[in-house]
Design brief:
Keywords: Signal. Helices cover about 50% and strands about 10% of the residues. It contains nine helices and six strands; from the N terminus they run H-H-E-E-E-E-H-H-H-H-E-E-H-H-H. The strands form three sheets. A two-stranded antiparallel ribbon has the order 1-4.
Length: about 300
């Protein structure tokens, strides 16, 4: 019963993580760098910075409209040439921010001009998170693909893949020149930070459930730090996860279990924990960003 309560608590928390949180704030910076990389393509070949005016949830498609291009409209900003969108204009386009919201920051947290194209991912994401926390709902909202990707949909996983593959294609097409390499480096850095944030947010619940499952067997759960070891938005919030290798090693060293026994036990614990669709989806998002990180590094 206690294990079930822990898992239920995890699911309630992980739903918020999937919907936004600090990782969701980082997503916005990630999308901005991808948007800039997409802007290196010819206008007719650009995919990001489009949204559906009226999305049909039942049919999972954009409703046809005379406005825009069959219901799809492009972000119109103040950046020249081409009326490209600034960071705040792009966030306004996606939803939840004013077109002139001061959110950009450098690595020391110092504010940057609205037109800056090279903001620090962590410091800017902290500002984005704080902005949404000040709103009535106090929550970083979800960003469905159809609000940023031309002919995108509401599938978050598919959106991650499409954005990543778009950046990879730009690199493969020779867009990663000396003049543009910083965009690709920033995209890769932000991808890594999103993955780290999601693993860090996920860790406490995985640790609690694993400790509860292994306590009765007398197995101590070893932990490892994730990233810096704490959340950038709350230094008191520890970022740790289960160190499976060390946990298994100390269990075998105790003499109470064989190596095969420990492998079987750990496999059962993980299988039980990820039976729920929401927990499984959270792990899938982490894996998606791990794949994205690998592809992004390959662009450098």
């Amino acid at each position: 019963m206690q294990t079930k309560l822990i898992i239920v608590s995890f699911l309630l928390a992980v739903t918020k993580v999937l919907a936004g949180g600090y990782a969701g704030a980082l997503d916005r910076v990630w999308l901005f760098y991808a948007y800039q990389i997409d802007g290196l393509n010819d206008p007719a070949d650009r995919t990001l910075g489009w949204k559906c005016l009226s999305w049909d949830d039942r049919e999972n498609k954009c409703r046809t409209s005379k406005k825009g291009v069959n219901g799809w409209v492009m972000c119109q900003g103040t950046m020249q040439p081409g009326r490209r969108c600034t960071f705040s204009e792009l966030l306004n386009f996606i939803g939840g921010a004013d077109r002139k919201e001061d959110l950009l920051a450098d690595s020391s947290g110092k504010p940057l001009p609205l037109t800056d194209t090279n903001p620090d991912p962590e410091q800017t994401a902290k500002n984005v998170y704080a902005h949404f926390e000040r709103q009535p709902r106090a929550k970083v909202p979800d960003w469905p693909g159809y609000r940023i990707i031309h002919k995108g949909d509401e599938d978050y996983m598919r959106s991650i893949i499409r954005v990543t593959d778009l950046v990879k294609k730009a690199a493969d097409d020779g867009k990663n020149t000396d003049a543009n390499k910083q965009l690709f480096q920033r995209f890769a850095d932000t991808t890594m930070q999103i993955k780290t944030a999601r693993v860090g947010d996920h860790g406490p619940y995985l640790i609690s459930a694993t400790e509860n499952a292994l306590r009765e067997r007398g197995i101590h759960v070893e932990k490892e730090s994730v990233g810096s070891g704490h959340s950038p938005i709350d230094p008191m919030r520890t970022w740790e996860t289960v160190d499976w290798e060390k946990t298994m090693s100390q269990a075998v060293s105790s003499g109470s279990f064989s190596n095969d026994d420990v492998k079987k036990i750990m496999s059962e614990v993980r299988t039980e924990f990820y039976k729920d669709d929401t927990a499984s989806a959270h792990r899938a998002v982490i894996r998606a960003f791990e794949t994205s990180e690998s592809k992004a590094k390959g662009c450098l």
